[in-house]
Amino acid sequence: MSDAHNDHESAIRNPKQLVAAVAGFFLVTVIGIILLVSFVTTTKLTGAGTESQSAESIAMRVRPVADEGYTLKDVNAPKVFLAAETVYSANCAACHTSGAAGAPKLGDAGAWAPRIGQGYDTLVKHAIEGIRAMPAKGGNPDLDDIEVARAVVYLANKSGAKFKEPDVPAAPPATPAQAAATTSAVTAPAPAPVVAAAAAPAAAAAPALMLAADTGKALYGTACLACHGAGIAGAPKVGDKAAWAPRIKQGTAVLYEHAIKGFQGKAGMMPPKGGSSAPDDEVKAAVDYMIASSR
Fold first, then answer.
1. Which of 108, 153, 248, 253 has a C-alpha 20 to 30 A away from that of 145?
2. What is the CATH number of domain 84-157?
3. What is the value of pTM for the model shown?
4. CA gap 240, 198 in Å, rounded
5. For 231-267, what is each residue's pLDDT tens digit?
């Protein structure tokens, strides 16, 4: 009988043991809370996509092309004309692939037949000067007339025409002054390398943001202007605050996804990356530029 009684006795047999047990429980609880708070406040937690605007990500997007092993372009060298397909992909595909704003689709012989019947000269004139919803030079004023003409021939020939691609004009011979300048540039001794001190992240962030804006503006001019400059196919015009307000409310993550992957809306459609082959980071920079210009 006494053994059964002892089995049900508590481990706490006096007030001192009770006080010690309660104090131990609170001590363990307090230590646990301190460790949890320390973990939350010292560990950087970020959501998906939040790193895109960090100083490191921006610097990576706008780093000099020379860092990637590319050859820098000599501004004094003869102009290298872009291939017809390259011009089409960067400036024409946004509308002529989807048929936005009534643009005849690439390969649609039925839609192109009456236009081809107008003749090569008329088609090139319309492409260079613009007509109806089509902006001049596809919205890229930096294109040379020859580049536009070659893109027109590419489009028309893929759709039933048999136009001859225009020849690229020969580069003029270099003048004595240009030759002397080139020789001086080649023979001049290379400047001594300068080791720059590491700049503070806060000081480097402002120039990086400016370069990112320049990158976005440049891509807008080549891939987005054709639709967002004229409001083609339901695209909100840059600067139209009323049209952009509900889109900005969706958040940049949604706008980035629509711009990169494409989007089909009630009033029109957006081709992936505006029909260009630009990297995702440059597309995001173009979205940031349009948002900043339309607030």
1. 108
2. 1.10.760.10
3. 0.42
4. 41
5. 776 788 888 888 888 888 888 888 888 888 887 776 6
